[in-house]
Specification:
With 306 residues, the protein is α/β, with parallel strands linked by helices. 44% of the residues lie in helices and 12% in strands. 37% of the residues are buried.
Length: 306
Amino acid sequence: MPELLPPLRPIPVKDRLSVLYVEKGNLDVLDGAFVVVDINGVRTHIPVGGVACLMLEPGTRVSHAACALAARVGTLLVWVGEAGVRLYSSGQPGGARADRLLYQAKLALDPDLRLKVVRKMYEMRFGEKPPERRSVEQLRGIEGARVREMYKRIARKYGVEWKARDYDPEKWDASDIPNRCLSAATSCLYGVTESAVLAAGYAPAVGFIHTGKPLSFVYDVADVYKFDTVVPVAFRVAARQQHNVEQAVRVGCRDVFRQTQLLERIIPGIEEMLSAGEIAPPDPSNDQVLPAFEDPKPLGDAGHRG
């Protein structure tokens, strides 16, 4: 008897809700559905297969079944601090690809290739090519100066008093409002970017501008999109002096991720950055683990939704 329905497949990362925060509840699988159960026993269903990244704040517990389901459908679980100001740990949706890892590592380990990639990141971020005959360290210094100036310019645009990017996670409430807003905004961006990096099969730790950190490559990629997406949101919220600025920032980031189609842009953007090295990726192994998110040929014709 022929199958009436096509086989289920993961939703491509570009078509998913970018990020969803969960706090003060137990994540579990009940009656085959992914749910959050609060202290009163109220169930809130989450369409986990349609979410790229779940941010788990303090007060959240996750069952083994929930972790297994999230891995099967390719949803990244990220354990963060209150208001998302710290990222403690994360799961990996689907496993990295050896050919992509070798390609990324070769580019990062060769000084000449690494410089080409860094220059491309700089060009994509600022819309112009960087000065010639500059090392990675010199470009990093130039970038830092430009970033500080961009913070000042955007702060003036929204009428926000701005001193410097400075905050202490241990004294969160003592930080000024603009820095709290920026920290909350960048945590949203890092979670979404990490989910895209892992989905594409790359290593978050193998960076080009940033090095030596578990999320170096995530920071590299996120910085390309930061000033076009979350930084204006942070300063706009800071200008309003709302009571719960972190929540307002999250909502604003969610909206801007949708408006700018960020998830649809990140993975092609990564390929563009790395292609600046002008070397061919290694051929994939016949036994390789497939990427977390495949986007096979649509079932219908051009008039159907994918």
